[in-house]
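Repro:
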Amino acid sequence: MTSARLLDLRGAIFAVVLIAAAILVPIAALAVPPASPFHVPAYVIALTGKYLCYALLAVALDLVWGYCGILSLGHGAFFALGGYAMGMYLMRQIGARGVYANPNLPDFMVFLNWHDLPVAWWGFNSFGYALLMVLAVPGVLAFAFGWFAFRSRVTGVYLSIITQAMTYALLLAFFRNDMGFGGNNGLTDFKDILGWNVQAEPTRAALFSLSAIALLIGYLIARAVTMSKFGKVLVAIRDAESRTRFLGYRVENYKLLVFTLSAMMAGVAGALYVPQVGIINPSEFAPANSIEAVIWVAVGGRGTLVGAAIGAVLVNFGKTYFTGALPEYWLFALGALFVLVTLFLPKGIVGTLGQLFARERRAAVGARGNRVPAVAE
């Protein structure tokens, strides 16, 4: 089996699993009686839905790091900006049902003696406008950042540090009350989305399905990019940027386009994350979140897309378990995991399994080729 066919098989299995989860998990949560062993509790729906959002963020990061060599430590910022865009829509839907019963201003604005809705909040009473901002805000920021960084030929560790500095600057900005985004407390106390109660089980099941579908679409987009001629140039930039530039390719344009696309995918992940967890605050901009996303990709397999998603789910499942069982040692476990993967599984789980499968396949083909046919007497 060639590597291309192996990739097709891996992608097909991944797509089937996501489609099955999007259909069967909500049915198991809503139609199966709670006493049944096949019933999926509401908290599991919310938790796994959050994992799927993280998986989409990991796929977005793998697109730029695994295939273009851009180690971004700022993708948590794009994730958070998409989340804030959706959170602003959800806050506008509260209306007069807030603590202060103000139909136009969110509670935190009334508490801070704001009298008018800031310009940045205009239009967020419309779901369509909110979706546009989910894509536009991370995309515009990534485009502006990439325009200056890539044309200045900032690469390697210097680029990683700058992306982390961008994330930290946004963290400090969103902590300020005068920014109009809830300050330290962020945005919370959401009531409904498109008229549906965000706490109701059918809504949570629908959000889970949307997260699975979004992950599948994000994967298909990333795979289409990487399998195209454009993707081949990205790999060339990753492996030999100066040589690719010498051949006449406008490297900065390729980087800028894929970086912007990746940021928009991260924004969608953040938008789906917020209604499922019920809050968005400046802690989502913390540089540690972006570093964790890099660990997800490294654990699953850089440059595999599917591995990035699997790594995100596995690491976060482990985090959920160990923060309850060993809360004082989780960060040490995370660091040890990254070190062990780097030393013993440099291509991650999926990448290493793919290598082993290819090696066994070559060995089997070689054994058949060396077999001497019997001579008829």
